[in-house]
């Protein structure tokens, strides 16, 4: 099975020896995304809500570059520096997955790169519709 490296300028560039995502067959595996504003090394804000929102926007951009969207995410892993912020992350997360949310794990960690509060990675299916618009992907 062929491995395809996925990259897009609409999400932060990899800051190490890894890819933004890898597409293998009908699956896409993303790298963890911080709440970094694309084209910068700046977090979207100091709070977990703004960082969660930006991390999910970054995932959305990577998935679209790979031929998919958030509707096709089957699993996410959320890494949190402070598990007490989970309810605030959930509120933002729910807006991105309003129907049929994917399976999810949450892990408390001691630290994240660039002193981020949250990091999110995803596994998604490739959209097999004639176009992303046809299946409701934005």
The CATH topology name reads: 60s Ribosomal Protein L30, Chain: A
Reported for the largest beta sheet, the result is: 6 strands, mixed
Give the topology string: H per helix, E per strand. Answer: EEEHEHEE
User: How many independent structural domains?
Assistant: 1
Q: What is the residue-averaged pLDDT?
A: 94
Classify the oligomer: single chain
Based on CA atoms alone, the radius of gyration comes out at 14 Å
What share of the residues lie within helices?
10-25%
Give the terminus-to-terminus CA distance: 28 Å
Residues in β-strands, percent: 15-25%
CATH superfamily: RutC-like
List how many beta strands DSSP finds: 6
Q: What is the CATH first-level class name? A: Alpha Beta
How would you classify the helix and strand content by structural class? alpha+beta
Please tally the helical runs, counting DSSP H or I stretches of 4 or more residues: 2
Output the strand order for the largest sheet. 1-2-3-6-4-5
What would you call the shape?
Answer: globular
CATH-level-2 architecture? 2-Layer Sandwich
Query: Which regions have little confidence, pLDDT < 50, spanning 5+ residues?
Result: none
Can you describe this structure in just a few lines?
This protein is an alpha+beta fold and 138 residues long. The protein contains 2 helices and 6 strands. The protein has one domain: RutC-like (60s Ribosomal Protein L30, Chain: A, 2-Layer Sandwich).
